[in-house]
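>> received
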Amino acid sequence: MNPTDAFGNVVLAVVVAVLVILVLVILFRSIRIIPQANAGVVERLGRYHKTLMPGLNLLVPFIDRVRPLIDMREQVVSFPPQPVITEDNLVVSIDTVVYFQVTDARAASYEIANYLGAVEQLTTTTLRNVVGSLNLEEALTSRDNINGQLRVVLDEATGKWGVRVGRVELKAIDPPASIQDSMEKQMRAERDRRALILTAEGTKQSAILTAEGARQAAILSAEGDARAQVLRAEGEAEAIKTVFGAIHAGDPDNKLLAYQYLQTLPKLAEGASNKLWIIPSELTEALKGIGTAFTDPSGSGLARRQPDTGAADAAGIADAPGTTTRVSATPAEPHRDDNATPPAPAIP
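>> returned
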């Protein structure tokens, strides 16, 4: 084998190897696999040609160029705290969280240089405009309103960039330390005021219920007393009717009535405080009945010995019927007669 043939074989092998490598490179550059939820922008000779979708895509080698892939999923970005001045000239620090999604890979690549930085700056400026028209209290209590306004403004501005803003949330609103201290004092005073009001209302309600209960108790007690008095009066009336009927049914004579009358007289002087008691004028009639009771069982006349009229006068007994005589609580000592006949026993 001469040297010329050997050189030709080497050159042929090199050419074949180069062709094989070239074919492999061409095949590698003409096939592009795009992952799911990603998109690729193809530029042909420096100009936008098409957008590659997930899956297997064919390209023209050395003519088509694929830009970095763009994530088409919804993304969450938390921006650092931004100082914002409220309507009442207070500086607050606000943290925001933005939820956005790229809907058009071509617009996101060519309409804006850095859509993420643009969203951050737009969020900051819009937040200052919205919060600047509110005072601190409104800013703290109107988060939903602020979120809605931010989302509308950002979605409208980022629409031409191929970006859709889904939600904007205020993660934290931090007022200055002095304002926080004042707010805590205010809230503490408000809670104390509410506690005092609730305590006063409870005391008032308790007093009302107590008074109502006392009123009901008094009403029920009065009704009970009235009913008891009615029943007592009805009982006494019934007792009087019963006694009255028994007396008339028994047909008592004057002797028994006079005896019962005299038995009742000592009760008038009962009690240590009684200094004066009154003897009714009917006492003489009762004495006459007693005298009749001491007559002879045969009815032959009065008892043998009449009572001493002087003793009766000393006792303060009036002879005239129909008159009333007052007698001192300390009666005069009656006249004693040693020869007098002892009185007859009382008729039961």
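>> The domain at 73-175 is CATH 3.30.479.30 (Tetrahydropterin Synthase; Chain A).
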